Amino acid sequence: MLELMEISKYYNPGTVNEMCLFHNFNLSIREEDFVSVVGSNGSGKTSMLNIICGSIPIDRGRIVINDTEITNMPEFRRQRRIGRVYQNPAMGTCPNMTILENMSLADNKGKAFNLGKGTNRKRIEYYQESLRTLGLGLEDKLEVPVGSLSGGQRQAMALLMVTMTPIEFLILDEHTAALDPKTAELIMELTDKIVKEKHLTTIMVTHNLRYAVAYGNRLIMMHQGEVIFDASEETKKNLAIDDVLNKFNEISVECGN
Amino acid sequence: MLETVLTILKGALEEGLVYATMALGVYITYKILDFPDLSVDGTFPLGAAITAMLITKGVSPILSLLISFAAGALAGMLTGIIHVKFKVRDLLAGIIVMTALYSINLRITGGKANVPIFTKETIFNNAFFGKMPKAVQPYLGLAVLFFIVLLMKFLLDRYLKTKSGYLLRAVGDNETVVTSLAKDKGTIKIIGLAIANAFVALSGSVYAQKSGFFDIYSGTGTMVMGLASVIIGINLFKKVSFMKATSAVVLGSIVYKICVAIAISLGLETSDLKLITAVLFFIILVVSNDRKRRAKGNA
């Protein structure tokens, strides 16, 4: 269970450029929910993710995960419970380190990074096994630096890496936006598979309305820092892309676009 | 003619090995952490100052090496804390520590800009070596240097293969990954700077023992020299796939000193040394195309 309670966030407070992003924003997400978040640019989608992850501070409000308050917890500590995949495929992996080294790093999350061997030889088979599920042939390229892989391959690895160790939340920040349609499809299917297998509570920000409708059990539309449309399980099942698109047009008209 | 060439080469080899440990330290900050660390110009003479004073007081030369190493680590940690906790830019954090160390080094030596230890026992000049056959004596210094550099290179290679070492490489490669591993990237940077400056101070200690004196100005240009060694080494040997970057850096330090020796043998004065350093460094940067800083965050 993730709860955002009465969150307020202003940019440039106290200046003429003061901009209110969130004012008393509330959102709660139940365990094992897979929430798709859509909304126009500047509607606060990514800022919401940044607030959950602790990448940007908030001015007022509380953030609670499974009854633990994390409002003042530094970003890196929150990541013990959270896994995040970014829009930019380069963000989730270390380009100058090999596939094997990246997998080893991810496998070690939550444990001590001491003077023990960086790569546990006994785990290599397991790494190859999980890489094989991607179907990209990465299992035979363990010694290749990740920097020489394509964006799709890197994004697949990033997804694999953040879900390798137990986490409570998966945060997907437009994670298919920078990929070609075919690769995006592949990553999306992979995401769905991992989420179902590991029973992860997931928040997915996307501009792809088809994905937003097809995946997950709840759909949220955001506009100017507020949730203006919230379709849960039953409603979402009967939701068509056109319905969402119409909603989109409504808010765009209000804005005068 | 051949003899003079050999003498020059041996001198350059020795010098290169003295500074090789320092170059390994610069390799950690510049190549692994992507942090241009100027505190090196202060930690190199810090190691030399501590060693000169300890040896004057009769402390064992080997213990002096270890104490210098520890002092370097502390100074590096300080640079790290200034950068990470007080959010001072990397270059400026280094400059702060470098400037402070100038006075601290003078404090350590009791205000003397020069402390000779020619007559004292060092790792290069001791009773044990005196008993060795005359024929091998000229090469004992080289043997000691080889031993120290290989040991330090081996330790660094081993460290970079540990879990902690993986994190250090990750923080220079992509900070976001370190955060997503629930680790504080700041702490890792501080650890990296501590290790790097420990290496540099150890090199300073070796320098003092080899040359037989401490000189407050011996630190000026250390970072540039280290950078030159790193860039020469890595660019010269990048095609040699079986060679580790650390080995390339050690060789780079030797090649660099040979370049300097050639420049001096062509008629330049030793007082031109810093000018030679600067010009060589400039040429290396232009030739290797390494003058732009790497973009952070993404590849």
Can you walk me through this structure?
The complex is a heterodimer of chains A (257) and B (299). With 257 residues, chain A is an alpha/beta fold. Chain A is 34% helix and 24% strand. Chain A is built from 9 helices and 10 strands. Chain A has helices at residues 45-53, 75-78, 99-107, 124-132, 151-162, 181-198, 209-214, 233-237, 241-255; strands spanning 2-11, 19-29, 34-39, 60-65, 68-69, 82-85, 169-173, 201-205, 218-223, 226-231. The longest helix of chain A is centred in the C-terminal third of the chain and has 18 residues, at 181-198. Chain A is globular, with a radius of gyration of 19 Å. Chain A starts with a strand and ends with a helix. Chain B has helices spanning 2-32, 40-56, 61-84, 90-108, 127-130, 137-160, 163-173, 175-180, 185-211, 222-236, 245-265, 273-288, and strands spanning 114-116, 213-215. Chain B is an all-alpha fold. Chain B contains 12 helices and 2 strands, in the order H-H-H-H-E-H-H-H-H-H-E-H-H-H. Chain B has one domain (2-298): Orthogonal Bundle (ABC transporter involved in vitamin B12 uptake, BtuC), CATH 1.10.3470. A two-stranded antiparallel sheet of chain B has the order 1-2. Classes of the chains: A alpha/beta (257), B mainly alpha (299). Chain A binds chain B through residues 74-80, 83-84, 86, 88, 90-97, 101-102, 104-106, 108-119, 147, 162, and chain B through 159, 161-167, 169-170, 173-174, 176-185, 297-299.
What would the average pLDDT of chain A be, to the nearest integer?
Answer: 90
Cα(first) to Cα(last) distance of chain A is: 37 Å
List the strand order in the largest sheet of chain A.
6-7-8-3-9-10
* Class by alpha and beta content of chain A: alpha/beta
Number of helices of chain A: 9
- The overall pLDDT average of chain B reads 92
Low-pLDDT segments of chain A: none
Spatial strand order of the main sheet of chain B: 1-2
Largest sheet of chain B: 2 strands, antiparallel
Number of contiguous helices of chain B: 12
Tell me the structural class of chain B: mainly alpha
- Total count of domains of chain B: 1
The count of DSSP E runs of length 2 or more, i.e. the number of strands of chain B, is 2
Helix content of chain B: over 70%
- Give the CA-CA distance, first to last residue of chain B: 51 Å
CATH topology of chain B: ABC transporter involved in vitamin B12 uptake, BtuC
